[in-house]
Amino acid sequence: MSTGTRLFTPLKVGAIELSSRIAMAPLTRYRASEDHVHQDLGKTYYAQRAAAVPGTLLITEGTIISAKAGNQHNVPGIYTQEQIEAWKSIVDEVHKAGSYIYLQLWALGRAAEPEVLSKETGLPLKSSSAVPMEEGGVVPEELSEEEILELIADFGRAASAAVHQAGFDGVEIHAANGYLIDQFTQDTCNKRNDKWGGSIKNRSRFALEVIKAVVNAVGKEKVGLRLSPWSSFQGIKMEDPIPQFSHLISSLRTFGLTYLYLVESRIARASDCNDSSGANGFAIDL
Fold first, then answer.
1. Which of 13, 124, 195, 231 is 20 to 30 A from 144 via CA?
2. Is residue 248 in a domain?
3. Where is the NADH:flavin oxidoreductase/NADH oxidase N-terminal domain (predicted)?
């Protein structure tokens, strides 16, 4: 008897076919070593979830693309050989269980832990502009043109390492929740007046250049994107995000990505909230 829903029917996502339309969202676990290498606990965690319903897509926790992209204690990376090999062992377990896995590419910007970043790179916090995440917080330095281009290249290198070395089925670009890409997209943080800010088009540029680098590295059929137009997490929400995100989302047609993941307005990081100020219907209508 039909239930009237397609939720449990197969769905083709890029080059893979899922057993249903339910996927595991990215969840930060803080279980990697201080060198940002996953241990046996991480392998067990993903293997268990892959085996629960074979044919499921798992999206990993945020994974740092490079040391200079910002870091936190015990989050995984994808920029050293040891990190890549640890992820490969996890990917192998997921595939053995009959499921699929995308790596979430993550750059923190001003949301990094300053002491971790300083210890590992000797660098201060960096962001699109010298705007702290919260009143009284650490003021980041504005990224230079050279540094911006280096970070874009880091996204491409990280995507290549994930797919071509660790064996991931694809990658998700984390452009949401007030992290680095979002810090360029939204005018609450981006106060630049060069080609990386000052207008809707220019504020979209960093995200689009990152997407271009990642697609060039692994192919459009292996790339998803996460956005959060309404999130107030980490002090990022614009007064009216619709014009900015309408431009950014419309620009995605050029790339033909595997999927676009939009966080609902009722979500603030890991919590439900009472924010009813907006909805994602504008994106569906584009």
1. 231
2. yes
3. 7-241
The verdict on residue 2 lying in a domain is no
pLDDT tens digits, one per residue of 239-272:
999 999 999 999 999 999 999 999 887 766 556 6
What is the Cα–Cα distance from 271 to 88, expressed in whole angstroms? 31
Give the CATH number of the domain where residue 141 resides: 3.20.20.70
List all residues 6 or more positions away from 144 whose beta carbon is below 8 Å from its beta carbon. none
- List residues with catalytic annotation: 179
Mean pLDDT of the chain: 94
Place of tokens 């060198």: 35
In this structure, are residues 79 and 64 in contact, taking their beta carbons and an 8 Å threshold?
A: yes
For the stretch 32-82, pLDDT in tens is 999 999 999 999 999 999 999 999 999 999 999 999 999 999 999 999 999
Q: pTM of the entire structure?
A: 0.95
| Residue 5 forms part of a structural domain | no
The closest of 79, 107, 78, 108 to 91, measured between CA atoms, is: 78
In a domain, 6, yes or no: no
Instruction: Name, in order, each residue with C-beta under 8 angstroms of 83's C-beta and a sequence gap of 6 or more.
Output: 35, 36, 37, 38, 76, 77
Helices 242-251 and 200-218 cross at an angle (nearest 10°) of 30
Would you list the DSSP string of 103-151?
Answer: EEEE--GGGS-HHHHHHHHSPPPEESSS--SSTTSPPPEEPPHHHHHHH
